[in-house]
């Protein structure tokens, strides 16, 4: 059956067939993916992608649309559902919950796209080995202790049984010998077990530290584009919980798996030697157990991946809410934020519910199989004793070792599923570890003997990678001469800050070239250049440390106390800093100072570097008129002639009237250029903006 729907409920038209399939999805020309499901003979369309960001609905209303498929009648039909239909639904529900049913599959709605390349256990182990190889002695010591523990522990049941039966048969010398051996084995296994735990713990600590160090250092060297596309919550989750989980592979999972594998192998050999028919029966049961375990392990791996994604999303929401707490409080959106967080918690709970169910089935399988081994051993072994084929001592040993075997198999399975979870969590971590550092850090650029501060933009165009179709700068050509003060003015969003971002080489131009003192910017040693640029952004952020350290942040030359105070005085910040409880030693952060005070500290930070190029992007927007008047001194620090090139962006036009040149921008283009008087005479956008500001005053 084929159906055509025309712009029903504002969804673009499409054609679909196979109306009887329970669920399908399609993508509209606008790139919006919809999932469609049948519900009570109705079709429900729900946008799959772009529907929400971090639990925030991007829709103004619930855009799920319902369309009757024509087979049924109206909504009231629900009540008229017959007994047979209800029965059928019940049967469907039960069958979906049974192993292999739909409920166990993570549906499209729950599933998130995991872009990382799948990591196999071997690849994960190889990566981990690479990280820990320098301390391989810890691993060797740990594995030696592990082997010794396994061998001593597996010998205990043999000597235990032998001691009991030698006592029963009155063989005193044999009994004493067995007991001495037993004591030796117990002490050795205890010591080795302690050492094993300790060494593996150390290996775990080394691994998690190296992983975090490596990942953090790689993330710090990424292009700014990367941080535009990745959320902070996601990145901190990778560094925190994911690294911790991945490190468990060596410190916990692998250690326990190997110990139990060794013990299981020993027990199996012993059983086969003791009685091969009975040994084979136990092996068959253990193989069944292993199959169940394998399935369960795969399920766990997938669940772990989803848990990881959803936890990261929940963290992201919490982080965003806490960092915007004042906005949340003022707008009274606490409940909305809670809902947003709960969206992810519910998804996590859903996964957890299913994995708990799967764990229940797994435990049930284990218990049944474990008890069947005992019943089988008693049945077959009892008959063998009656037939005089084996002794009671042999049967006791058999039961003890078969128990050992099945428990070891269970432990292997349990830890294997943990291992799968850890491997699942490692995919994104290793994917991020594979990211190449930004080219800026890998290529060695040239340094100039000194920087005069000549800046040239030659036919520069630019689009942000996240919005490639939007041309933010269009064919910009500007020359800023050394020691010149140039102001950038224009309507909001016209591209002023983007020019500065390109000058700081936070982004690369899409076309055109930027030259500094006649040298292409991308051929220069960017670290060297940035050390010579002072930059104050629109909303300066402070680190949680004392005022002195905040001012000296990133300054590579040796600075004295006097230098810091001098910079603070130039930025008109000294007076308020002196009034703080501990002056320059006062711990500040983003929330403990006013906007204007933060701006003045940021200006002092830029001035302290004594930069050849100073960039002020709305750096005085939060200052009162008097402070702003005084701060303007930093532009003309050495008398009339400024000793540095200055680029200043300001909406408050009084700030930039004294600039040597004013560049007016509109929609990514330069539309006017000149000094204040020339631009007023031109009577263009600048004159209009000036009039508006005068009017509003
Ligand atoms: N990181 C980014 N990713 C994508 N688009 C961006 C990014 N930063 C800015 N833009 C877009 O680029 C355009 C120019 O932004 P820009 O910040 O340069 O404007 P502006 O003139 O400095 O504005 P304002 O005066 O409000 O600071 C805007 O449309 C903005 O939405």
Task: Say which molecules are bound, naming each kind only once.
Answer: adenosine-5'-triphosphate
Order of strands across the main sheet: 14-17-18-11-19-20
- With helices defined by DSSP (H or I, 4 residues minimum), what is the helix count? 20
Query: How many β-strand runs?
Result: 20
Task: Report how far apart the termini are.
Answer: 69 Å
Query: How much of the residues is beta strand, in percent?
Result: 5-15%
Domain ABC transmembrane type-1: 140-421
Protein name: ATP-binding cassette transporter
Keywords: ATP-binding, Membrane, Nucleotide-binding, Transmembrane, Transmembrane helix, Transport
Membrane topology: Multi-pass membrane protein
Question: What does the model show?
Answer:
- There is one protein chain.
- The protein is of the alpha+beta class and 697 residues long.
- 56% of the residues lie in helices and 13% in strands.
- The protein contains 20 helices and 20 strands.
- It has helices at residues 83-97, 121-132, 136-168, 172-220, 224-229, 232-274, 276-323, 325-331, 334-386, 392-433, 439-442, 496-503, 526-531, 547-552, 561-570, 574-579, 595-608, 625-631, 676-682, 685-696; strands spanning 2-5, 14-17, 23-27, 33-39, 42-47, 52-53, 56-57, 65-68, 455-462, 473-480, 485-490, 511-516, 519-520, 533-536, 545-546, 587-588, 613-617, 645-649, 661-666, 669-674.
- The strands form six sheets. Strands 14-17-18-11-19-20 form a six-stranded mixed beta sheet, with helices on both faces.
- Helix 6 runs antiparallel to helix 10 (392-433) and helix 19 crosses helix 20 (685-696).
- The two termini are 69 Å apart.
- Adenosine-5'-triphosphate binds at residues 228, 464, 466-467, 472, 490, 492-498.
- One of its GO terms (cellular component) is mitochondrial inner membrane.
- One of its GO terms (molecular function) is ABC-type oligopeptide transporter activity.
- It holds the Pfam family ABC_tran.
- It is a multi-pass membrane protein.
